[in-house]
Each structure stands twice: as structure tokens, then as C-alpha cells.
Write a structure and sequence with these properties.
Layout lengths: L1 H29 L2 H26 L6 H29 L5 H27 L3
Helix pairs in contact: 1-2, 1-4, 2-3, 2-4
């Protein structure tokens, strides 16, 4: 079961990245390049910090529960810090930028994370 649980994390990150790229491509066809790149940036602001958290939590550390808890706390604090840093840098340094598209890309990637986690949990539960 642990092996299956560990597969959910990279698949979730892949789902987030896929939703981000797909949304950016759709917006590139439907709206402007600025909107598409802004959505891609917003999704990346969600995916990259989640990847940091995943790397911290999934790093091998034996069976020490305290080490795992410490890694989870550090990973979550790092994830929040990276998210804030990336949002700040995006809005301070990138121009032109579509704020609604940035937030839309971020929210879409976050929703993909929840959907992938829910679907992955169902697959593990049912032995798929």
C-alpha cells in the first residue's frame, strides 16, 4: 500500500502541470498570449511549491516519525513561503500580466490537486 500511496504524489503533480498547460493552451487559442502566459505562470506558482513539499515529505528517512513530521512542517512552511515569493515576484517583475488569469491558473492547478488526490485515494482504496 505504501508504494501505491507514493505514486499518488507524482501523479498529482503531473495532473496539476497538465491542467496548467492545458488551460494555458486553451487560453492561448481563445484569448491573448498575455492571458495564456499569465495562466501558465499562475499554475506554475501552485505546482512548483507543491513539488517542494512533495520532495521534502517523500525523501527517505527511515521510520523516524519525528523526522517525518519535521520534514512535513518544513515542507509546508517552504511551500507557503515559495508561493508568496512567486506571487510577489510575478506581480512586481512581469509586465504585462493578467491578474485574473494568474489567479485562475493558480486555482485551476489547486483544484486539479484535490481532484487527483481524491481519485488517487479511490484507486488505492479499491486496489487499482
Amino acid at each position: 500500500m505504501l508504494i501505491e500511496d507514493r505514486r499518488i504524489v507524482p501523479l498529482t503533480l503531473l495532473a496539476q502541470a497538465g491542467v496548467t498547460v492545458g488551460l494555458a493552451l486553451l487560453l492561448g487559442m481563445w484569448a491573448s498570449d498575455v492571458v495564456a502566459l499569465s495562466a501558465l505562470l499562475g499554475g506554475s506558482i501552485a505546482v512548483i511549491p507543491n513539488g517542494f513539499l512533495a520532495a521534502r515529505v517523500l525523501a527517505p528517512r527511515g521510520t523516524d516519525a519525528k523526522a517525518l513530521l519535521r520534514a512535513a512542517w518544513f515542507g509546508e512552511i517552504g511551500k507557503l513561503g515559495l508561493t508568496a515569493l512567486f506571487f510577489g515576484a510575478a506581480f512586481a517583475l512581469i509586465e504585462p500580466l493578467s491578474a485574473p488569469a494568474v489567479f485562475g491558473g493558480f486555482i485551476a492547478a489547486q483544484l486539479a490537486m484535490f481532484a487527483a488526490a481524491a481519485l488517487g485515494g479511490l484507486a488505492v482504496k479499491h486496489g487499482s
